[in-house]
Amino acid sequence: xxxxxxTEFEDEEDELSPELEKLQDQFQELCRRLKLHDKGFCDxxxxxxxxxxxxxxxxxxxxxxxxxxxxxGVGADDDGALCLxxxxxxxxxxxxxxxxxxxxxxxxxxENERAAQVLSALKLHADAAAVLSTSxxxxxxxxxxxxxxxxxxxxxxxxxxxxxxxxxxxxPADEDAPFSFLSLPDEAILHVLGFxxxxxxxxxxxxxxxxxxxxxxxxxxxxxxxxxxxxxxxxPLEGSWKLAFTHSLGLDESWRQRRNQLQSIxxxxxxxxxxxxxxxxxxxxxxxxxxxxxxxxxxxxxRGQNCHTTYNSVAGICxxxxxxxxxxxxxxxxxxxxxxxxxxxxxxxxxxIVMGYGTESRVxxxxxxxxxxxxxxxxxxxxxxxxxxxxxxxxxGSYKIxxxxxxPEFGVHVFDAGPAGVYPEVALHTAHAEVYQVQWARGxxxxxxxxxxxxxDSRVRSWDLRMAYTGNDQGDTIAVCERGIVRxxxxxxxxxxxxxxxxxxxxxxxxxxxxxxxxxxxxxxxxNSLALDLRLGWMVSGxxxxxxxxxxxxxxxxxxxxTCPIGVMAVSMDHSRVIAGCEDSTLRAWDFDVDQExxxxxxxxxxxxxxxxxxxxxxxxxxxxAR
Length: 627
Hints:
This protein is an alpha+beta fold. It is built from twelve helices and 29 strands.
C-alpha cells in the first residue's frame, strides 16, 4: 500500500514539472533583460559594444508581477515573492528617475527665465542709451534713462538682476535709480572684471549663471587678471589663460601648505647682504665687495623653452666696489645699480648678460660700470641703502634716487640720476635718527609720490616730494613701536609694512595711520628684510633667527615658514619662488611651482628620521644603563 502511494506522488510531481520548467525559463529570460539595464554590467561589457539603454521600463515590472502571480498560483511562495520584489524595485527606480528629470526640467526652466530677465535688462539698457543719445544737449541729466530704469524697478524681474538689493522706498523721486552691474553691456562687464583681483572675480563669477557663462567664454578677462595680478605663469597654458589661472591657484595652495623645493646657490665668499629678483634674473650683493647675476629656471617664458645647463649658475659679476655691498637693484633689462657701505653708488650695464643667459656658454661675463659716484661728503650720508623711481616711462636712464644712511641730522638725500651723472636735489631731516632703509611708494593711493624711511628711533618718516622742503621739515612720522629700531619697510598702494629689531611686524593703512591694521611677533630676533606684493596678497620676511615667513596681507596671517641654519639678511620673491640671502654666503631659493601629485617633502622626512634616530639612541642608552 505504501508503495502504491509513493508511485502516485511521483506521477503527480512529474505532471507539474513541465509547468515549473516553463515558469523558470520565463524568469531567467526576464532576469537577462533586467541585467541589460544594469549600468555596472554595461560598463564592464562596453568593449563588446554593449551600451547602457537606461533604467528598466515599466513593462518589465509588469511582466515580473504577472510571472510572480503565476508562480504563487502553483504553490512556489518564495519564488513568487522574488518576482514581485523585482517588479517593485523596477517601479521604485522608475519613480526616482522621473522625479530627477522633473527637478532637472524645473532647474532648466529657472535658468531660461533667468536668461530672459538678463536679456530684458540689457535691452532696457540699450533703450536708455538710445534715449540719451537722441536727447538735446540741454537735457543731459539722465532724467529719461533714469525714468526708464525706475520703471523697470517696478517689475519683479529686476529683483534677481540687481547685485545689491536697494529698497524701492529708499529711492528719492528726484534721484537716479541704483546702479545695476548686469545692466551694462558684456564688453563693459568684462572690462570691469579684468581690473579686479582674482578672489573678487571668482566670487562674482559665482553670484549668477550669467556672469559665470561670460567668464567661461571670455579668455581675455583671465589674461588681464593673470597679468595685472603678477601671477604665475605669465603666459597661457595650452592656449588658454583660464587654464593658466587655474594653475596659479595651485601655486597659492603650495604657499599655504609649504610645498616647495629648496635649492642652495653658493657664489660668494662672504655674507649676502642684498638680493633682487627681476623676472628670471637674480642680482645678489655680498660682503666680498662683488655682485653676482644668476639666471634662474625660466618663469617669464613657458617651462622648458630655451632651457640650458647655465641656469642656477653665475652668468655675470660686477666688480669695482672697495667695501661691502649694502644694497642692489635691477632697474630694467640693461641696467643695474648698487651701493656700498662707504657711500659709493655704481651704475652697471648688464644688457649682454641678461640677453645672453639662454645660451649654452659657461663663460662668466664681467658687467662694465657706466659711472660711479662717491657720496661720502660730510653733508651727504653714507649710502647704506637706496631705492629708485623712474621719472619718465619713456626715458630708460632717468631716475630719482633716495639714499639713506648714518648722517646724524640729514638721514635721507634725494638725487636726480641720468646718463650725464648724479645731481643732488634735496636733503631730508630725520631728527638725529639713522636710516636703515628707504623706499619710494609703489602703485597708486595715498602714498603716491612719497619717500619713506625706516629710522632707529622706532619711527617711520615720509615726505611728499611734490611739495617744497626747506630742509628742517621732518615730514610725517608714524610711531611703529614704543622702543626699538624699525629695521625694514615696504610700501605699496595704501599699505605700509614694517619689520622691527624686536622681531615684530606691523601693517598700516596710510589713509588712517592712528592704529596698525595688524601687529604680529613674527620672529624671535631682528627682522632684516621684507618683500611685499600687494596684488598677490603675499609678504615674505627674513630675520636673524634663520626663518623666512610667508604672510597674507593685510591680515598679517602667517601661512608657512621656511628655516635656514643661519640668519637671513635679505629676501625677494615673486609668485612662484622665494629667494633668501644668508650670513653664510649662500643664496637659498624655494620653488613653489612643483609637481603637486608627486611632491615629496625631503626636509620633513629628514626631520622625522632625526627624531626616530634620537628616540632609538635614547632607548639604547636606557637599556645600557639598566644592564
